[in-house]
Design goal:
heterodimer; A: alpha+beta; Jelly Rolls; six-stranded antiparallel β-sheet; three-stranded antiparallel β-sheet; 32% helix; 23% strand; B: mainly alpha; Arc Repressor Mutant, subunit A; 72% helix; 0% strand
């Protein structure tokens, strides 16, 4: 059961469409796994709908706007269409992530970063970065703090840090105040989706030197 | 919007989806296109671009009419999501991947009771939004329409970030209360 959810600020910004792409990806992936946050998002979208409905003043359309629009619809064939992609399933990666990886969990292009930890950086806009992390069962991610916002969503296995335990679907929202060392639980290897809008700050010497190479 | 309005828009959209009803579409266009245009202008588009993009949104309304589910959203909410996506493209903002869709089958009839409850809730939300204290409503509107993050609202208004966050939090509490 998912116990760590998105906060209002993230849901509202996702609904408004103002988040960096990397955070949008984390939010979309969490909602794919979490019916509770899907329902909360629907409420935030409803606020957007209420604003549209209650819009004042409205702005008049051009005099030929309807006929122009109808002509464009006719040119398109009039037929309403269902352009939603066919559903495919992957036990680890929900649909939004599959689009970034180019397939399921077997298609992830892992790069080792030391200590058995692997990562795959995903192609997003430069406003924030997103990566998949593979943490072998029982292994630790280097102790780090944050200069910005970091979102970590568990996709497989579980990790624990000074705050709590996080399993599939759980999201940890970390900011400047949190200094933590996530450790993967024994058993299943842990796969996470992590996004941040600032470089992570590692405490130890080696990770700090490694930082430019890891592109974190 | 009244309950009958919400149901009316949903019925008109169903007529577009099932019968390619151009009269029904004209009524929807008359109501929603000027609202979408106003929304896009508030987001920073000039009137000509807003006009063009509002037309795009209405073309999408026609093309996707069959995907609308009145037990999940009001027509206004559905139009908002289409307009938001068009705005992201228009302003070349960051891509916004959608969540995995819930399972869908061969066109199950939407539940009439669910649909009515949802339209009633949508109406209460609109009333609650209209009754918010002006300074709270403005913050909500900026966050949705102004295409601004909380930090950008802080820079623009000169208000401390904490004030903006607390006004938005208070507004959300009131809106939530209207739905409970």
């Amino acid at each position: 059961m998912i116990t760590h959810h998105l906060n209002d600020q993230l849901l509202m910004a996702y609904s408004a469409g103002t988040l960096p792409e990397a955070f949008n990806l984390v939010v979309a992936t969490h909602i794919s796994l979490c019916d509770e946050c899907r329902a909360r998002l629907a409420s935030f979208d409803a606020v957007g709908g209420a604003l549209i409905e209650d819009e004042r003043p409205t702005v008049e359309m051009g005099s030929d706007a309807l006929s122009t629009t109808m002509a464009r619809i006719k040119a398109g064939g009039m037929q309403a269409r269902d352009d939603r992609p066919p559903r495919t399933r992957d036990p680890v990666l929900p649909a939004p992530l599959r689009a970034y990886v180019g397939g399921g969990v077997d298609s992830i292009n892992w790069r080792p970063v030391g200590g058995g930890v692997k990562q795959a950086i995903l192609p997003t806009s430069e406003h924030a970065s997103a990566r998949l992390l593979f943490i072998p069962a029982g292994a630790a991610v280097p102790d780090h703090g944050h200069s910005g916002l970091e979102l970590t969503l568990v996709l497989q296995g579980a990790f624990a840090d000074s705050e709590d335990r996080f399993a599939r679907g759980d999201i940890e929202i970390a900011d400047e105040d949190l200094h933590h060392q996530p450790i993967a639980e024994p058993g299943l290897d842990c796969i996470c989706l992590a996004a941040t809008d600032a470089p992570l700050k590692f405490r130890g010497l080696l990770p700090r030197l490694a930082q430019p190479f890891l592109q974190i | 919007m009244t309950i009958t309005d919400g149901v009316k828009w949903a019925d008109l959209l169903a007529r577009v989806a099932h019968r390619q009803d151009t009269d029904a579409f004209a009524t929807l266009f008359e109501h929603f296109a000027p609202r979408v245009k106003a929304f896009l202008i508030k987001s920073g588009a000039d009137p000509a671009l807003a006009e063009e993009c509002a037309q795009d949104v209405m073309v999408t309304v026609w093309n996707k009419a069959a995907q609308f589910d009145p037990s999940r959203a009001s027509v206004a909410t559905w139009v908002f999501t289409i307009a938001r996506n068009r705005r992201i493209d228009m302003l070349r903002r960051d891509r916004r991947p959608e969540p995995e869709d819930l399972p869908w089958g061969p066109e199950p009839e939407p539940d009439q009771v669910d649909a009515l409850v949802l339209q009633q809730e949508s109406e209460r939300l609109i009333t609650a939004l209209a009754e918010l204290p002006e300074r709270q409503r403005v913050m909500i509107e900026r966050a949705y329409f102004g295409d601004l993050t909380h930090n950008e609202i802080a820079e623009e208004t000169g208000l401390p970030l904490g004030t903006i966050k607390s006004r938005i939090r208070l507004a959300l509490e009131r809106l939530r209360h209207s739905l409970s």
